[in-house]
Design brief:
- The protein is mainly alpha-helical.
- It has helices at about 10-15, 20-30, 45-80, 80-95, 100-110.
Length: about 110
């Protein structure tokens, strides 16, 4: 059980990029509930939570990329050109944004402000 009083939101850059995939945004949001802030946290504790938040986002985005790659392969194997094109667009979007959001997380955890 954590005692966090505040959890980081999904970075806006990812919310915007993934706006057509609300299920992915919800999964990112769920992952970020494992990290957060509570009153009186030291700089070291905030830094630890920031690192955990990075790992959460990166891990989730990496799994989204892997799954999207599988969707491309499945659509290609099925000969479904429309589905394959959609899956390729999704894969490209995820690859393009897989490391985004760090600056927003740093601001949330007030990293470098003390």
């Amino acid at each position: 059980m954590n005692t966090f009083t505040e959890h980081p939101p999904v970075p806006k850059v990812l919310q915007e990029a993934l706006k057509d995939y609300p299920d992915l945004i919800a999964r990112l949001e769920e992952g970020l509930t494992a990290v957060g802030l509570r009153p009186g946290m030291s700089r070291a504790q905030r830094t630890d939570q920031l690192e955990r938040a990075f790992w959460r986002l990166e891990g989730d985005m990496d799994s989204f990329v892997e799954y999207a790659s599988d969707e491309v392969s499945a659509a290609d194997a099925a000969g479904d050109a429309d589905k394959a094109a959609h899956a390729r667009r999704k894969l490209h979007l995820l690859q393009l944004h897989r490391r985004d959001g760090g600056e927003e997380l740093m601001r949330f955890f007030a990293w470098g402000e003390d």
